[in-house]
Design goal:
mainly alpha, 12 helices, Actin-binding Protein, T-fimbrin, domain 1, actin binding, Parvin, cytoskeleton, repeat, CH_dom
Length: 224
């Protein structure tokens, strides 16, 4: 119902929403929806490419919603963070509040209940115990005294390596998913440097000019 309502409202602007989680989190659709329904002029850019810009945009939009609907902070069932992280329940609460205010005749179904499941992700920590050794012993073992924690991990706890890679994979995807990317293999997908560059851009909150590097490198020189 909500998706159909949004698409009907924004039909003349050629905006088509297919998923409430994936299409509303960056504020673009919400921006158009509020301007169309309430003739609100929001002082933000239409398109926000970086997470920092999206957060700023959502902050302005949600503040406008609160003022327009005359809601106190204690009454809000959504936040910038929850919308940005694609929390479906928060997005539904927000859309229902907007619909009830601007479209009171919208045939909302009664007695709707949502069951939520909270998943707790526990990050694996790797602790490396370093034993003091003399230099001669290091030479005999073919080790360098400048080994760091990851060297120790490879040599002493290879069984923990997959768990560490999984944690890094989750970290990477948490940021590059906003660009429509999904990393499944760190070794192969990081080999050409493209995802690394895009990840840095997301972490630092700036836009990388795509003309400065090859987005789909076809040779070793382009990767370099």
């Amino acid at each position: 119902l909500l998706i159909d309502w949004i698409n009907t409202t924004l039909k003349e602007e050629h905006i088509v929403v297919k998923s409430l989680e994936e299409d509303l989190y960056d504020g673009l659709v919400l921006h158009h929806l509020l301007e169309n329904l309430g003739s609100l002029k929001l002082d933000v850019d239409k398109i926000a490419l970086t997470e920092k810009k999206q957060r700023q945009k959502l902050s302005v939009i949600l503040e406008a919603v609160s003022k327009c609907l005359q809601l106190e902070e204690s009454q809000l069932k959504w936040s910038v963070e929850s919308i940005l992280t694609k929390d479906l329940l928060s997005t539904l609460h927000l859309l229902v509040a907007i619909a009830k205010h601007f479209e009171p005749n919208l045939a909302m179904p009664p007695n709707v209940q949502v069951e939520t499941i909270t998943i707790e992700v526990i990050i694996v920590s790797v602790f490396v115990k370093e034993d003091p050794r003399d230099l001669s012993q290091d030479f005999e073992l073919g080790r360098n005294t400048s080994d760091d924690a990851f060297d120790e991990l490879f040599s002493r706890a290879p069984d923990k390596l997959e768990a560490v890679k999984k944690v890094f994979l989750q970290f990477v995807n948490q940021h590059v998913v906003k660009l429509g990317l999904n990393v499944k293999d760190i070794e192969s997908q990081f080999a050409d440097g493209v995802i690394l560059l895009l990840l840095i851009g997301q972490l630092e909150g700036y836009f990388l000019n795509l003309r400065d590097f090859f987005l789909t490198p076809a040779s070793t020189s382009e990767m370099v």
